[in-house]
Amino acid sequence: MLRALSLTTWVAFALSCNYFIYVLKKLPWLRKKIPDTAYQISTFKAVLSILLGLAKVLLGFLGAAIALAVFIFGPMYLLEQNFMNSRLFYHYFFFIYLLAAPLVNNIIFQTRDVVAYTMVHLLQLDGRDFLISKVIFNLGIKALRYLLIFLFLSLFLNISALEGFMLAGYILFAALTWEWLILETFKKYRINPYDKPGIVFLLSLLLLAICYLLPYRSLVLNLQPLLTNGFFFALAALLAGYSFWRLHSFDGYRALTKETISRDRMLGIEDSLKNAAFADVNLAEEKLAREEADGAAELEGYALFNHLFFARHRRIIMKPVQTKVVIIAVLALLGWAFLLFKPAYKVPVRENLLSLSPYLIFVMFMLSSGERFNRALFFNCDRYMLKELYYKERKALLENFTIRLKKSISLNLRPAAAVAILLLGTGLITGMGGAIIRLLPMMATIFSLSLFFSTHYLFIYYMLQPYTVDLVQKSPLYSLANIVMYALSYGSIHIKTSSVAFTFAVILFTLAYTAMAIALTYKLAPKTFKLR
Amino acid sequence: MRLILDNIEKSFGDKKVLKGASYTFTRGKIYGLLGRNGAGKTTLFHCIRGDLAYESGSITFQDGADGKSAGKLEEQVGLVYTEPLLPEFLTGHEFLKFFITANRKRIKNPRPIEEYFEMVKFADDDRHRLIKGYSHGMKNKIQLLTVLITRPPIILLDEPLTSFDVVAALEIKQLLKAIKAEHIIIFSTHVLQLAVDLCDEIVMLHNGKLRGIEPDLLGKPGFEENITRMLTEKESA
Questions:
Q1: Rounded to a whole number, what is the distance in Å from the CA of B9 to chain A's nearest CA?
Q2: Closest CA of chain B from A529, distance in Å
Q3: Residue A274 scores a pLDDT above 60
Q4: Strands B15-26 and B184-189
Q5: pLDDT tens digits, residue range B26-64?
Q6: φ, ψ of residue B103 in degrees (nearest 5)
Q7: Rounded to an integer, what distance in angstroms lies between the CA atom of residue B153 and that of residue B183?
Q8: Is A497 left (phi over 0), alpha (psi -120 to 50) or beta?
Q9: Most buried of the four, A63, A246, A438, A493, by CB within 10 Å?
């Protein structure tokens, strides 16, 4: 176990160091100054490992502190304007740290990163040794981190140092117990809850809702006496010990890791063709023939190519779009029902409806499916085709780009239309009457932004092609472009302008951007759109 | 028709892979490019096809008796990869339909798709299955077909026969021999016997340089030992 832990730590550091050097070598002014020998084990790499390790420790503390602030102290302050109510603190702590967090942060079923793939599949490390050592290491570090934080907080809050110790202990115990419970469910029913993230998401949402809604109804569970009771603490420790023993004695890790730590999962990609067409060849052929009959028989060249691509990847491309539309529809129905039952809110909602324009950029940014669309294109199509010169010719690239752009626009128009209907419906319900025409600029903004984000994501994909041929690395510049877009979209919330001027600016910008994107793709993509 | 490589140099970072590779290939012959693992065979192919920029030297394609250079070199080259990369969401038939219609201008005498399949003896049942389910050899046949459809003057084959079964390998060998009169075919391989069986000339890539082997020596006693000795020679200072 110790060997597995030290090996994993070594590989993890080697991978992060190599990636860091790789990123540095991508920077134009450093590219030539860093020799290839930088990848060799050297003092430079040892120092880099230590620095990256320190950064990881600091980021861990920062993350834990932010989590405490967001999930416990923020809500405490909102409710009571102080942090001293220990009953409330224990209430939140119980729901967040002992129920929701261990469920969301499960290690055994959610370990699917590059290190895991390298250790289990490439270096053939025993699945049990790898996962158990990871559980021990991660949970041990987490408990230690929270112990230090709680000891520090005990200087200012109504928590004693002993309580701080117990709280950190409970975090460890709860996590171990949940790991075992989920593994047990898997063993018994062959259900991996993390295969369907919706289940975990809904469960955690339910837990959060109970956690935060109860205090609003003046129901704060009095858990402090129980959680500070030494006997209960010992019982929890025993349960955690038993859980660990059961985790350790499970003999199906080999099969489990084969399923959970796959190359596709590591890369976060989905392949709708997987398991679909080969289990039963006849069925697949019949299905394919049917799909071809759905309009492909008359098509040729890139029109045919893209038609079949989108037809056969419908599930992975359409699913997120449908989910977004459903979420908007549910929100709309809930909101409209609320307004019908509480008519007093109609006037303030109506008066504020027009001032929502600046939020639209961020909303449409969040609703666009660009990143996922690009990944689907690369992993299921372009990585095979970019080796072919005819595929990279200027005319072919532009033809492909425009077909894909149309598809991306048509996909993104669905959530855009849903948002537009949400706003129009709200205008009607709140009694805007004829003044509803004043919402038209917002409608135009929504559709323009939808067009803008569709173009933008596809454009940067063609300009930066972020994925490498071995499917592991991602261009740092592409990540940076996404972060900048997020920051700009978020920052735009603070824009103060009239609805009409805002719409006008958005439309103009979108048109100019789309024209530029098409021109630059034609001019530059033969050089930039390539395998790395 | 000649392909002239003159003093090609190519490095990756600090590692120099091609160190002045020069050779002249002519039409009507199948050349076996022999070299050890990592010798730079694939790199040389990518330089010829224009996928990789090289630091110095020149690659010229001369067509016709006047010795003039033909159009763009990359348009004259077809490359079949060791690891065939094909869009797995298409069936073999759909891929060829796409390929033929997307490259219509390049194809001089297009034939019906089924005829192309017949050329490489591709089984009827497999033509309408997704490429994702194809074996390595089947994918290689499809990739080879793309070259047979466009018939570029220069055909580069990067270890293509290793994935074929005995019967398929024999069929492909016969096919290559049948079309060689109109092409320059360069065939990279580690397998000496394959090179001897199929090729008219053997060119060795060793220490970053190309070196032709006398055709008379092919198959003579001691030939294998000589080749092994040459491929293990250290670079002279």
A1: 19
A2: 13
A3: no
A4: unpaired
A5: 999 899 998 888 889 999 999 998 888 899 999 988 887
A6: -115, 25
A7: 5
A8: beta
A9: A246
Q: Between β-strands B15-26 and B29-34, what pairing exists: parallel, antiparallel or unpaired?
A: unpaired
Domains annotated for chain B, with CATH where assigned, are 2-86+153-231 (3.40.50.300)
Question: Tens digit of pLDDT for each residue in A173-219?
Answer: 999 999 999 999 888 888 888 877 678 888 888 999 999 989 887 88
User: Mind giving me the DSSP string for A364-385?
Assistant: HHHH--HHHHHHHHIIIIIHHH
d(CA B76, CA B99): 17
Angle (CA) A155-A160-A166 rounded to 5° is 125
User: Is residue A383's pLDDT more than 70?
Assistant: yes
User: Under an 8 A CB cutoff, do B101 and A381 touch?
Assistant: no
CA distance A410 to B72: 39
> Which residues of chain B lie closer than 8 angstroms to A300, CB-CB?
97-98, 101-102
Nearest to B98 among A305, A387, A389 (CB): A305
Q: How far is B93 from chain A (nearest CA, A)?
A: 11
Interchain pair B87, A305: CB under 8 A: yes
Local structure of B211: helix, strand or coil: strand
Which residue of A270, A300, A403, A529 to mutate against B (max B Cβ within 10 Å)? Answer: A300
A322-364 per-position pLDDT tens digit: 989 999 999 999 999 989 888 888 888 888 888 888 888 889 9
CA distance B75 to A388: 11
Could you tell me which residues of chain B have a Cβ less than 8 Å from any Cβ in chain A? 13-15, 49-51, 74-75, 81, 85-91, 94, 97-98, 101-104, 106, 128-130, 132-133
Q: Do A288 and B13 touch (CB under 8 A)?
A: no
Residue with the two structure tokens 């112990």: A147
Chain centre distance of CA A118: 22
Helix axes A43-68, A2-26, angle to 10 degrees: 100
pTM (2 d.p.): 0.73
Q: Do A301 and B87 touch (CB under 8 A)?
A: no
* Residue A269 binned pLDDT confidence (cut-offs 50, 70, 90): low
Percent of chain B residues past pLDDT 70, beyond the cut: 95
Inter-chain touch A385–B87, beta carbons under 8 Å:
yes
Residues of A in contact with B76 (CB under 8 A): none
Q: Give the strand order in the sheet containing B184-189.
A: B77-80, B154-158, B184-189, B29-34, B201-206, B209-213
Contact B45, B5 (CB under 8 A): no
Contact: A277, B133; criterion CB under 8 Å: yes
Query: What is residue B18's three-state secondary structure?
Result: strand
Nearest C-alpha neighbor of B4 from the set B16, B21, B18, B19: B21
Count other C-beta atoms under 10 Å from residue A531's C-beta.
17
